[in-house]
Amino acid sequence: MKSLLLISCSSRKSKLSGTTTAVERYDGGTYRVIRKARRLGTIRGDLEIKIISAKFGLIDERTAIPYYNLRMDGRQVQRLKPQIHEALQLLFQQQDYCEIYVDLGKRYLPVLEGLEVPANIHIQHAVGRIGERLHALKAWLSI
């Protein structure tokens, strides 16, 4: 069974030219924790990472994306919500997830409102201030 990490994009981005993977393009604290865990070999092996992007909707960490600057707002939430729900429902049908770790800020959380998650999937939400959230993510990634 797999674990799913659901995170938001980051306003801080690498300015590499052309396209690069989402996990390399976004450069906020969450992405730095993920990349460091990979470098150190301390990241769980059953992990799948999906990103909610204000521009692209739900994407995989390996999706190649260009540099852009767009913030999530109410209009974007309403535009992206149906596509994200549909994509997540399809993932739940195709993959056997045992748990989902959700680390979304207040601008991104409304995208998930009303999402039906299978009852057998444990959901954990990141809470607290940024430092606490990053510490909790680091611990969860290494389980």
The overall pLDDT average reads: 95
User: What name does the CATH topology carry?
Assistant: Rossmann fold
Q: What about the largest sheet?
A: 5 strands, mixed
How far do the termini sit from each other? 14 Å
Number of H- or I-type helical stretches: 4
* Total individual domains: 1
The parts where pLDDT drops under 50 for at least 5 residues are none
User: How many DSSP E strands?
Assistant: 7
Radius of gyration: 14 Å
Strands ordered across the widest β-sheet: 4-3-1-6-7
Q: Work out the strand percent.
A: 15-25%
Quaternary state, please? single chain
Give the class from helix and strand content and strand pairing. alpha/beta
CATH-defined architecture: 3-Layer(aba) Sandwich
Specify the helix fraction band: 25-40%
Please tell me what the overall shape is: globular
What's the CATH class label? Alpha Beta
| Secondary-structure element series | EEHHEEEHEEH
Task: Explain what the structure shows.
With 143 residues, this protein is α/β, with parallel strands linked by helices. It has a single domain, classed as Rossmann fold (3-Layer(aba) Sandwich). The chain is 34% helix and 24% strand. It contains four helices and seven strands. The protein has a five-stranded mixed beta sheet with strand order 4-3-1-6-7, with helices on both faces. The chain has a two-stranded antiparallel sheet with strand order 2-5. Strand 3 and strand 4 form a beta hairpin. Helix 2 runs parallel beside helix 4. The two termini are 14 Å apart. The relative contact order is 0.21.
